[in-house]
Design a protein that fits this description.
By secondary structure, the protein is of the alpha+beta class. The protein contains 8 helices and 20 strands. It has helices at 44-62, 109-116, 124-141, 147-159, 185-195, 211-214, 217-225, 250-267; strands at 3-9, 16-24, 32-37, 69-73, 84-85, 88-89, 164-171, 173-174, 177-180, 199-202, 236-244, 283-285, 289-293, 298-302, 309-310, 315-320, 327-331, 336-341, 346-347, 352-358. The strands form 4 sheets. It has a 9-stranded mixed sheet, sandwiched between helices. Strand 3, helix 1 and strand 4 (69-73) form a beta-alpha-beta unit. The protein is globular and about 70 Å long. It comes from Tabrizicola piscis.
Length: 370
């Protein structure tokens, strides 16, 4: 389990940031699974789960049970871990320019295509290796200009060699849920079942080019660009949301790490069989997920609990005006599982009050929270 460190320059003179990850098993072995936590640096559950997964993988490696290769990056955003305002960490957005750390990852397909021209052939396995090399070369072709983009490049450099990529996050308050793409869905169904996901949200393009899509989308684009040569979708990825920000405990993290380890057994990365439980939900389109919006300001309370099945027209939350006492109900516009909500209970106009996983797509454009 050697630790590895990558360092990149910070914004100020003499400042640097470092990423440290652990590697388990033979680096040339397949399948290769990459796991990271804390890309949003104020989301602790994924970081603790990744740390405890690394500890369990060290035990499995010492016992000689590693068949594939696993890389684990417990803290994927050293920049965000250093951002505090009045004693509270703020790690979702770069305070320098306001950009979400999990958006604006580079699209590498076009630059990779230049490296692939005239080199692809009829062998899908050989083409897969060529595409991975080309994607890494595309990163070199477009050097980052600031620390946040250097971070994005570094994260892609670690993830591109992998067959499966798991990006661990959390919401304000939430049930476990998972975001993925159609080509990754079959690979992620077992993970959703093992982690007890209450929502499994699927979109080919969610908007903003987040990390999980940035490692998958180039494979699809390159397959379309070179239709005469077989290029399989050789990377499957997801964003796994491990409840809410306050759900940081060693017992929960140990439970989640064990579920991910069971997933690695299922993939054949670690020796040993696992029985998949029945899924707690079926996939639904991300475009069918409703974000409830506060129409007025006031004190926020909820009429339903996380995990409840709600129906269109049902009151989900109430906003009380502390001055007049007026109570304004907020009703569901679609039917589905109420799976996430903010951790705060004071609403401003336009605040996102919760998410409902509906079965029927109705939204267009950017589908993720800002």
């Amino acid at each position: 389990m050697p630790d590895n460190t990558l360092t990149f320059a910070g914004r100020g003179p003499g400042t640097t940031h470092s990423l440290t990850w652990a590697s388990f098993g033979d680096r040339k072995a397949r399948p290769h699974v990459h796991v990271q936590g804390g890309l949003h640096a104020d989301e602790g559950p994924g970081m603790l789960t990744a740390r405890m997964l690394a500890d369990r993988l060290a035990e499995e490696e010492a016992a000689g049970r590693l068949v594939g290769h696993v890389t684990v990056l417990p803290a994927a955003n050293p920049m965000g871990l250093g951002q505090f305002i009045h004693g509270d960490i703020t790690g979702r957005f770069d305070l320098y320019d306001g950009r979400n750390f999990n958006r604006a990852f580079p699209d590498l397909a076009e630059a990779a295509a230049v490296h692939l021209k005239g080199r692809l052939g009829p062998d899908a396995a050989r083409n897969t290796a060529l595409v991975r090399d080309a994607l890494l070369a595309a990163l070199v072709d477009s050097p980052p200009v600031d620390p946040a983009d250097a971070l994005r490049h570094a994260l892609l450099r670690l993830a591109i060699p992998a067959d499966v990529v798991l990006d661990l996050h959390c919401d304000g308050e939430a049930e476990v849920h998972l975001y993925t793409q159609p080509t990754s869905l079959d690979a992620m169904r077992p993970l959703a079942a093992l982690t007890g996901c209450r929502a499994l949200l699927v979109a080919e393009v969610s908007g903003g080019n987040p990390f999980d899509e940035a490692v998958v989308r180039p494979w699809l684009d390159l397959a379309q660009r070179f239709p005469d040569h077989p290029i399989p979708p050789a990377c499957a990825s997801c964003t796994l949301e491990l409840r809410g920000r306050a759900d940081v405990s060693r017992s929960l993290a140990a439970h989640d790490a064990e579920a991910i380890l069971d997933y690695l057994h299922h993939l054949g990365v670690v020796e040993g069989a696992v029985n998949l439980p029945a899924p707690a939900c079926e996939p639904t389109p991300l475009a069918g997920s409703e974000a409830l919006i506060a129409p007025v300001a006031g004190l926020l309370s909820y009429s339903v609990s996380l995990g409840d099945q709600v129906t269109a027209g049902q009151t989900v939350a109430e906003i009380t005006d502390p001055l007049s006492g007026t109570v304004h109900p907020v009703c569901a516009g679609t039917s589905g599982v109420f799976f996430a909500r903010p951790a705060t209970r004071i609403a401003e106009v336009g605040k996102r009050l919760g998410k409902i996983a509906g079965a029927h797509a109705f939204r267009h454009g950017p589908l993720l929270s800002p």
